Amino acid sequence: MDRVVIDGMASMVDYHSLHIYTGSDDYWTNVLQPHQAERAIRCTRALIERAAYRQKLAAPPRIAYDEWNVWYRQMTGALEERYTFADALAVGTYLNIFIRNCDWVQMANLAQMVNAIAPIVTSPEAAAVQPIWYPVLLHSQRRWRWPSMCT
Fold it and tell me: Percent helix, strand and coil across the chain, each rounded to 5?
């Protein structure tokens, strides 16, 4: 299906959208599942490069990972996850994957930042951060110091 969309739209759009949620009660499965995002990036990049070659596009679309996060627990009403250390490692893995592929992934949006499946939870009296907040914080603090891999 992505091939059909990419072939039909590559000359008319700036981005092709991907999104993914991962997670598992099994520690290692949870930590390693974000690598599915990297596989999706590789496949999508190949499809875009194919379309660009066939259509002679000088500036092919890039990838917008418009929604991603760890989300797998059973909900009982509210969309509020209570995250663990394994979830934080998974989020760090996602962030590293997006940086590693920044020549093609030019936008990557964590699904939500506050309350619903988010790193920050609030109430009328307080706000607290969850474990997945820390990889986001650390990446935001370090990004400007990394060599310019992508422009």
Answer: 40, 20, 40
Model-level pTM? 0.88
* Alpha carbon distance 141, 63 (integer Å): 24
Residues 128, 53: Cα–Cα separation, whole Å: 49
* Contact in structure between 67 and 19 (CB atoms under 8 Å): yes
Helices (H) and strands (E) in the chain, counts: 5, 5
Q: For residue range 72-102, list pLDDT tens digits in order.
A: 876 666 667 889 999 999 999 999 999 999 9
The Cα 43–Cα 19 span in angstroms is: 14
> What are 103-117's pLDDT values in tens digits?
999 999 998 889 888
